[in-house]
Write a structure and sequence with these properties.
- By secondary structure, the chain is mostly beta strands.
- The N terminus is likely disordered.
- The radius of gyration is 24 Å and the shape is globular.
- 1% of the residues lie in helices and 52% in strands.
């Protein structure tokens, strides 16, 4: 992830941007304006999301790993006030500051937020609980989509604060939010917009479907979705229309998500080409599911064939209405027949996203998981022998190669086989990465390794079991 730090503050101005995203148009005065915008917050139960911005800074040096503490930062804006991000939607911006920046490329951007003076309120006006993951002044680093090129005549840098992903809801909305900052910085002059209408297919024609959302991804549709990286998101209005602003000129994948209970399934549109200064029209047609399921869902991952005495790790993969994975321990598990298969939670917990399932006796049992309104269940069959036995003969890590973006969560899976090529389960796996300062391991769930890239480079991820190893390549880009 490239991050930029803005420097050389000579003039500070605060203003509300226009809905067409053109706030801060320069008049040839050589000034560079720093603007704040938002990929809209998806919850209509929230009245305001106010963040207290202390300062903004930029740097010509890419920020990777711990280099942020030692590289030179130039402060370019010090508003020291709160901004309501819910007022910065559909391309609207607020002017944070205006500065004289030397012409050239800026590769990192840092925003200082005061958590103690930031707040979220419900539509009723009551304060909403927020875990800010810290207190006082916090340094937040933005994804810089390519180096920001500031010309001699000045430019417009937009800081896009994605509320929908920066404030993750807990299992119960009444419990409030967890602050997980998702920020990107772009040069507005080289970005474009995608706009269109989301339709639902009924018989042989489409009708507008409002209330959902759209997500814009960078990636290749011939590759698995876990190799794509999120660029931006936006809500869908009541009339089915949407707009996604401040997108760098390139080709994207657009995914439309229906509102919960609509009876429609998410749908993709590609390739969607964005050109600087232009709006690309792209409608999305959602197909019916034949049911009333919502966009968010929970899926249980784990080995459903066990032997008596054998254990397996089960993981509740939870996805929100925007299709993003959610990490939470607010998951309740149960077994329909503990005499056949038992569920064991980590020590000291009554809820967890991972559990251990143990085969107790011959038979079948249903393992269920629930988080809020989302639930899933799978049947586990317990036999008298392990389906595939013997020592591990080979280890395959899949996908063998993938490209991910700094800050995006991703995963790999280890597939173990015996000498006859039969897939093995419930074997101990040790994971290593060639550069821990590039990939941060977030957790191991059975055969899966979840990680987050934190710097740009190419890394080898290796799984080892019973003396056998396999590796995969992860290329991390901005």
């Amino acid at each position: 992830m490239h991050r930029a730090y803005l420097t050389g503050l000579t003039l500070l101005a605060l203003a509300a941007g226009c809905s067409d995203g053109t706030t801060g148009v320069l008049g040839g005065d050589g000034m560079t304006r720093i603007l704040l915008t938002d990929s809209p917050f998806p919850f209509d139960t929230v009245g305001s999301v106010e963040i207290h911005i202390v300062s903004v800074a930029v740097s010509r040096t890419a920020d990777t790993g711990t280099s942020a503490d030692s590289q030179a930062w130039i402060t370019v804006a010090e508003p020291r006030r709160r901004f309501d991000l819910l007022q910065l939607q559909d391309g609207a911006t607020a002017l944070l500051g205006e500065t004289e920046l030397s012409a050239g490329e800026y590769k990192a951007l840092r925003l200082i937020l005061d958590a103690d003076q930031s707040r979220v309120t419900w539509a009723s006006g009551d304060p909403a609980p927020v875990s800010w993951q810290g207190s006082g002044e916090m340094a937040l680093h933005a994804v810089v989509e390519g180096a920001i090129d500031v010309p001699e005549g000045g430019g417009r840098i937009v800081i896009d604060f994605d509320v929908g992903r920066s404030f993750a809801t807990r299992a119960s909305l009444a419990d409030g939010f967890v602050f997980l900052p998702w920020i990107r910085a772009v040069n507005q002059d080289v970005t474009g917009t995608i706009a269109g209408t989301v339709y639902g297919l009924q018989f042989d024609f489409g009708v507008p479907v409002g209330g959902g959302s759209v997500a814009v991804f960078r990636g290749d549709t011939t590759m698995p979705p876990n190799t794509w990286s999120l660029a931006a998101s936006a809500p869908v209005g009541a009339d089915g229309r949407y707009q996604v602003h401040f997108l760098a000129a390139r080709t994207y994948i657009v995914q439309g998500f229906p509102p919960a209970g609509s009876g429609y399934a998410p749908a993709l549109a590609w390739p969607v080409v964005v050109q600087a200064g232009q709006t690309t029209s792209q409608d999305i047609m959602l197909a019916g599911t034949g049911g009333g399921g919502g966009a968010g869902y929970l899926r249980i991952a784990g080995d459903t064939s066990l032997a008596v005495g054998q254990q397996a790790t089960f993981f509740a993969a939870l996805f929100d209405e925007q299709g993003d994975s959610v990490l939470t321990n607010d998951v309740t598990w149960s077994s329909s027949d503990p005499s056949v298969a038992t569920v064991t939670l980590p020590p000291g917990r009554t809820q967890s996203q991972t559990v251990t399932v143990t085969g107790v006796a011959l038979g079948t049992a249903m393992i269920s998981a629930q988080s809020g309104t989302y639930a899933d269940a799978v049947w586990v069959t317990v036999g008298d022998t392990v389906p595939a036995g013997g020592p591990v003969a080979s280890v395959e890590v899949t996908p063998a190669s993938q490209t991910v973006t700094v800050g995006d969560s991703a995963y790999v899976r280890a597939i173990l086989r015996d000498a006859q090529g039969r897939q093995l389960s419930a074997r101990a796996i040790v994971w290593t990465v060639s550069q821990p300062n590039v990939l941060r391991i977030d957790g191991q769930f059975g055969d899966y390794l979840l990680f987050t890239p934190i710097a740009v480079d190419t890394v080898l991820v290796t799984a080892t079991s019973e003396g056998k190893s396999g590796s995969a390549t992860v290329a991390v880009k901005n």
